[in-house]
Amino acid sequence: MNKKITTAILMGSVALALAACGNPAANDKVQEPEASQAQEQKADMQKSDANSFKTIFQDSVFLGDSITEGLSFHDVLNEKNVLAGAGKTAEFSLKDIAELTKRNPKQVFIQLGSDDILWRADDPIAYSMKNYAKLIGMIKEKLPQTRITLLSVTPVTEDAIKMEPRYKNIGDYNQAVKELAGKEGASFVDLSPIFSNSPDFYDADGIHFKPDYYTKLLELLKEQTK
Known about the structure:
Layout: H1 2-56, E1 60-64, H2 66-73, E2 82-84, H3 97-103, E3 107-111, H4 124-142, E4 147-151, H5 158-163, H6 170-184, E5 187-189, H7 211-221
Parallel strand pairs: 1-2, 1-3, 3-4, 4-5
Helix pairs in contact: 4-6
């Protein structure tokens, strides 16, 4: 009799142990779909935002350098709404006038300067402003009904400045762009509020950006389209 009781107790203990071991796995199975669902919801929201921005800015063109090019690279805007490329300066962008005219946007956002301040000239800012003014003049001539908005150059990280000290001139360049906008009757938008809380928008080089930055950028600029 005692042998039977002992055997029953032992079997019961094994069953309880197996049940206990099974609980974490069961919990994991409950949590994994929740985590997956949260990721899917986030992806759906990002896709929804992207589609919304593509509609809001469907009649706009963003003209600029590799910073601006990120808008289409990260599929935040369609390629037809972005006319940009690595190394673009105000001078080099003069060659884009024909293509810009062909696209005939209602509004053009211009963001140049990240490469201009690295230009090897006696006064890179003055040289850039001369060509920037010429660029605006050509847009006015070819597209007189198009609204022009100038955007400030985005800041870089401290590490990027250590690698390239000329980035210290971004503030002076932005002041020159603001004054140029006033002189030429264009709008000017300071993008510094996007970085007020120092979010982790930067790619590894401390100059270019992750997709989240472009969402914040367009959120800031959408009022300009009204």
